[in-house]
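Purpose: get a first structural picture of the assembly so the mutagenesis plan has something to point at.
Setup: two entries, given in the order below. No constraints added.
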Amino acid sequence: MVKNIDQVIDHNYEDLFTIVGTSEENIEKLETAPYSYWRETFKQLWKNPLAILCVIGIIVLVLMAIVGPWIKQYNIYTNGGTVSLDEFEPYLPPNADNWLGTGGTKMGYFKGLDLWTLVWYGTRLSLILGTVIALIDTFLGLLIGSLWGYFKWLDPIMLELRNFINNIPTLLLYILLMKFLERSFWTLVFVMCMFGWMGLAGFIRNQIIIIRNREYNIASQTLGSSPKAMITHNLLPYLISVIVTVVSTAIPAAISAEVGLSFFNLSFRAHENVTLGQLLTAATSDAWQTYPYLLIAPMIVLVPLTVTFFYLGLALADATDPKNHR
Amino acid sequence: MALFLIGYTIIALVLFLVVFIIGVSRGWFFKGNAKIKAIFANPLLLYSLRRIGSAFISVMLAITCTYLLIRAQSTDSICKAAIANWIKMPEDVFALRCTTIKEELGLTGSAIGQVFTYFYRILPFPKTLCSTETNALTDALGNITYTVTARNCRNFIMDLGKIYFINGFKNAYVIDVIFVNKMPHSFRIGIIAVIVELAIGYPAGVMMAKRKDGIFDKIGKAYIITIDAIPGIAYYYIWMTIFMLIGLPITYADGEFLTYLAPALTMGFTGMAGIALWVRRFMLDEFNSDYVKFARAKGLSENRIMFTHVLRNALVPLVRSIPSSILYALLGSFYIEKIYSIPGLGGLLVTANSANDFYALQGIVVVSALISIVSYLLGDIVTAMVDPRVSLSGK
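Result (structure tokens, whole complex):
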């Protein structure tokens, strides 16, 4: 035994290694590509087959929202979409002409209109509305949330404001505000953004309070960084994963919120603009139990639309987390 | 008069109690008595008191703001709704009658003054409020004369005003309508829903955490994502369709238990997703903690670790939300009540809005604000009872 170990120890090192030589040029070269945060993120994202499916789904839905109404040429805004003129049987189930059927008698303005066209017009407006609201909410939420988390004196005031808003039923606030405002795209955006930023702001505030007193922040503060630099260079980049997730789940959340408002007739007036929420509400006020296609038509877009955005948000949350990289 | 005295005595007692608690905790009096001092030095008690105080401020703000927002609309329509046959009335009689009604409701004077009147009315102590009624008298010649007669006085603990607009509740007191007529409907649906969501959501969360990335976990996660993502109304209708196909009655009827099931299950299956997600996340966090590693090192079985160690800790944050979910069941859900046509509180908000009924809307704000305060408080107390790390007695 001892002899063997001696043999191992008294090894001739030159047998184990070969000298390749040096070259001045190769010293500066890196064998692997330098680490890039966003490249790693997308690499992670494309590893997830469900996320790819969601991206494809979103692209298809967005394309259909643009192209869909053109496939069937009915201009609903000039009431040219009326297909079933037969007053006695307005409930046309899906057929070769109307792929998703036509609106029923109790659907108000949508009575007798082609549901395929309506659904894609609705998707278009719902998507635009959702995106605009999500962007504004995110901007406000980030701005207010980071200030709220960073400045300690702001905390009691903002907590009081949050309690105040939480104490009133949100629907009542919407109802009251909508009574005073003309119904248009921007008033709807205004009303929905008025309280929408609260959730994100509170979330960012909690996250910032957790990381605010870490060593690197204290060091930065000691060196005299301004609050602006602290927030934009130290705090928010740390939270990028959280922020990306919130933005991508904010779009389906805004679409859902609009559906909720439509249900109580607080959204647009139906003859001016169509949203998926209005279609759903109109279908539920009609005899959808007898004619289920009325309800299926908006659902068939609404459910995949929200689920794909939401799942993509969750997949992005995993992919943007640097702990999962490499 | 006696009622007033009782009311002011109660208020004085409450004020005294508040001063007493603050005083003892700050060390103004009872400096020598260590026992009393120890009770009030308890951080949880002080924390709860501070929370209630801040909640009261925000409730007052909320009531003021909604009052002013609602009040910004014209109040003349109230008279027209309140007085029967107002069209036939001579103008001066109508004006007189209108003033009496407005005075009775506290709608005269400046906006801020009205808010204070409203606060006086809703402060919970006994008071007597009177209302007047107009009677039409027809004499032998057929002329109609109007007299303001019939002074009805009522004793109130809390006066939320009167409902004039909603058909079926005309001239009813808001408090009667809310507590007596509406809340039982909302509450019985809500309480079944709470039971369902706890009974299914909690074990589901445990099962999901137990076999992470197992088949059950994947199904559960897919369900939670779907519930989170798609709009509430969409899945309420999906559930409704399923219940319809099963054969459950979907139109609510008072007193028939079978008809409660569809709305309650719809609500419960929705709420259960949130609870399952919470429990799962919390259990997974606890699995990495030191005491679980120690228990495993001692050689305890996984089931034992799960049920005697982790589950107890996972119970604590969940228990805090139970009182509030039970109390919020009183308020009902706007959507569920509209979909299943339940005559509950959630539906009242919508009816009151479309009827422009001022006091019904305001009453709902007050009730929901009170519920939020009480559920804060109960949540704290229940946490102290369940969590051994937090104690009410203090040491």
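The CA atoms of residues 5 and 40 of chain B lie 30 Å apart.
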